[in-house]
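does this look right to u?? NAP version
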Amino acid sequence: MLTYDIIIIGAGPAGLTSALYACRANKKVLILEAKSYGGQIINASKIENYPGIEEITGFDFATNLYQQVKKLGAEIRYETVLRVDENKKVMTNKGEYLSHAVIIATGAENRKLRIAKEEEFIGKGISYCATCDGNFYKNKIVAVNGGGNTALEDALYLSNIASTVYLIHRRDQFRGEAKYVEELKKKENVEFLLNETIASLNGQERLESITLTNSKRELIIDGLFIAIGQEPKNEIFANVVDLDSHGYIESFDGIHTKTPGIYVAGDTRVKELRQLTTAVGDGSMSATVALKELSEH
Ligand code: NAP
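got this back:
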């Protein structure tokens, strides 16, 4: 069985930063990623709050980091982790690997509305990524659902592409930054629909309209961008970590899980602020602590 010093699960900013630190310490590093490198940040149209970088796209940031880590010698395998045991054996859909330390940096996935036809209409009018799919809606009518930075950024991005953008949020206060709200208010093609949620998704072959819960208004739209936050998928790790009621990994110090040699980093852990800056901070800390503890054994 292939054995590594550190196996990192997840190739988002937290996992890649852990790999960066571990590689620079000359360790044998394997990164396991189920989808593609970059995590959620790869879909950010622009990042303006990363210290030292005035503005960069999420794609460029993620790609730079990925290439940096590859250059340093990290091995990346695109495999889905199925189980990790207390001996730091990691089982995937393609094989089994042993490691002296494991860092779980699996981030979180897009939260679903969980209403009828949502799954059916994905790719047929429903998207969770404005930067990926926005261009399909040139001069069309779209709606964005959510009140965080993602929804606000998506609405701004789409306002430059679509003819009309409805911004639907369940409260009258936004969770995202005021700067984005002010920019959106200046846009003539953006309509705010506050204190509203989506009651139903309507259409036969694809999404044709949505009905709002309070006003009962039916909006004829071509596309709906759902940006209502993320949620973790950590059930497979429940044998080696404690999860909170939302499924995030508990850690008494932001690094250690309840199993020695298994660490956590990034959005997937219980934490106050889930941002790029805190993800890379977690990544560097978990790798540094893991390396220190490896050297002590
Ligand atoms: P978020 O901040 O958790 O916001 C999720 C939004 O969706 C909230 O407004 C929430 O409403 C709403 N919501 C949640 N569940 C809902 C449901 N079932 N139905 C309707 N609405 C629902 O998520 P996010 O916007 O994806 O951002 C995640 C993190 O990434 C945040 O820390 C954010 O600041 C960061 N981020 C940063 C940038 C940037 O700095 N450039 C860009 C994107 C994201 P309530 O407000 O009522 O709870």
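The chain has a mean pLDDT of 96. idk if thats expected tbh
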